[in-house]
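S1.2 Input.
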Amino acid sequence: MQALQIKLWRNLWSLKGQAAAIALVVAIGVATMIMSLVSLDSLRLTQQQMYQQQYFAEVFAQLKRAPESLAERLAELPGVATVETRVMAPVNLQMPAFGEPVPGLVLSIGDGTPPQLNRLFLREGALPDAGRGDQVLLSEAFAEAHGLQSGDLLEVVINGRYQRLRISGIALSPEFIYHIRPGDLFPDFSRYAILWMNRPALAAAFGMDGAFNNAAFTLAQGVGSKPVIAAIDQLLEPYGGLGAYDRDEQTSHRYIDEELTQLEGMARFMPLIFLAVAAFLLNVVTTRLIRTQREQIAVLKAFGYTSLAITTHYLALILLIVLIGSLCGLLLGLWLADGMAALYQEFFRFPYLVFELRPVVALSAILVAAVAAVLGCIGALRSAFRLHPAEAMRPEQPARYRKTLLEYLGMHWFSQPVRMILRNLERHPWKSLLSMVGIAFAVAIMMMSNFQQGAVGHMLDVQFRLSQKQDVTVFFNEPVAARAAYELQALPGVRHVDGFRVVPAVLRNGQHEYRSSIQGYPAAGQLHHVLNDRLQPMPLTEGGLMLTEHLGKLLHVAPGDYLEVQVLEGHRPLLQIPVAALVTEFVGVGAYMQRESLAVMLREGPRLSGVFMAVEPDSIGALQHRLERMPSVAAVTQRENAIRAFNELMDETMLLFTLFIMFMAGSIAFAVVYNNARIALAERSREMATLRVLGFTRGETSFILLGELMLLTLLALPLGFLFGIGLIWLLILSIETDLYRIPMIISADTFALAAAVVLVATLISAWLISRRAARLDMVTALKAAE
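S1.3 Output.
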């Protein structure tokens, strides 16, 4: 086998350019897989460790007010292992340097002692001293956004009373790993604060002495959450219970789970696309190599080498290229995963990140790359195995040339080199088609890498331009009488006010259920619209629910079906409500109906959970200051702030990620086009030399070779656009979640950029190949066997 080993290294050296290009594609596929899987493992392991070490609760319950003595009855419920009651309330922080008040949430801890559940990780400082009501812990995300540290003073309005509080420490909590204000779509660390305060002081400020309005639970081992939640709800119902829920419904945990789901989708989908392209290229290169080495294969078999040994030789060449690419991809993937980990720590506030590469992940990535390559080249390897020595000693049978279709149609208006290009493409349709498919894949991958920016921008426009037209949204601590809307409309600068009612509820259809809320909007509202599939506003149907399409899919309902609705506040009625229509919404899921109909079903008078306000631009700042000083106001949000937070998030994450994916897609485009060009030069070197002898200039022969490459690229663009649409559709399905769905919106810029990158890759390849063609040794090329 020594001769075959020498031949292996000679083949690899002769194919070094093509092998490097293919190894690059393999490296990108393996790197993407390693990046996704290592990031996924790191997030999961960190999440599990933090949940265990900080005793993250498994069930949560919110209520109006209950006496502390009820805690004993809660602890005695079957399946409950631990229960901790607490006080939770909204606050407003006065931030003079920031220019606007900031809403926040304050939670109670023991008097100078850490909580039993949802324990805090102190980044700096210490817990508030026992007996002190003027000290708080502050969330790290908000502290970093405003440059605050231990010892700094905060000006806080608690239950309408102004207080100055000193920051005793900076903390993180498993309950707020994803630091987002309720009702917001995107995190804005500078506009939402989490604080922890000694319980006696917080209870006194909110009239909660000897009482609680929130509870956290852990469960006994092996106990499911559903029966425990039912028992908790039954016990808390007389005290204004809003419905207990398990960890899966907790906001922070849910966002992390959705991110992990998307990472899993990317880990399954993206690497396979890259490795499929690598397998395709390896198949083309191996097929051409075996075809040009027919006589060598015949001689080796004649000298006693078995078909299995020769097949193994070519298989070793394939695996060697894959191994080189896989090792490079392994290193690149680790570097990318480290960068992804740093990015995740910006948005998921873990106190640390456990980062490791499990051997099984590395071996799996290499194995997947190897299997993909072998499967892609199995046809070429079979041809080497079946080739008989006597047949292989003869050159391949010359092709039989006839008039092509284009010649029958007439090609006299084309120059001779152009006619030669067209004849060659039509006389080798399968080879031309395979070349086009390779280039089309490069176009498709480029489209897939770039479409998200335009699609996410479309999501933003639909959410904040077509659906939500309000400038300011106000949320109340408790539902208030509808006359509050008229009082707010009388404030300076306010042009229009629409009140809304939000009621927490569980929606059921047989065994399918979803915990959400019913949002009641005025029938003649102007500031919030539900949209149909053409993104046109739809009137709210009287007495019926309008569900987002995704929620309808989750509940398996269609217009005309009835839903069982368990209301989770007030008298907690159980309702049967028909589904009137399905509406289009890309962010979150929702159930909408007329506010007036909702009030009738709840048997309550006109009440509001909040209002949408249209405000003169120069009055927004003063209005927000005035609103946040009102005791009944829980939070005030500005639409422009939400848009600004989204754009900042995109600038920091999506832009960097898109550039990285575009670089990978561009590299693949170059690898595909360059391989096609090198194979064309190798297969037609004798033809090029013959044309030179016949009097064709170097420019004319280069035009024939490179013109064919450019024509194939242009013909491949429409096919690539179709492939790209298909890949984008598959990607959208793989990353669809309850929190948001990326719409199938492909802008003209996406098509244009994909085409431009592939054309540039073609031009670079053409330049490199033209340099090799200029150095072509005509004597050596003309010695090829007839």
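S1.4 Remarks. The longest strand covers residues 494-509.
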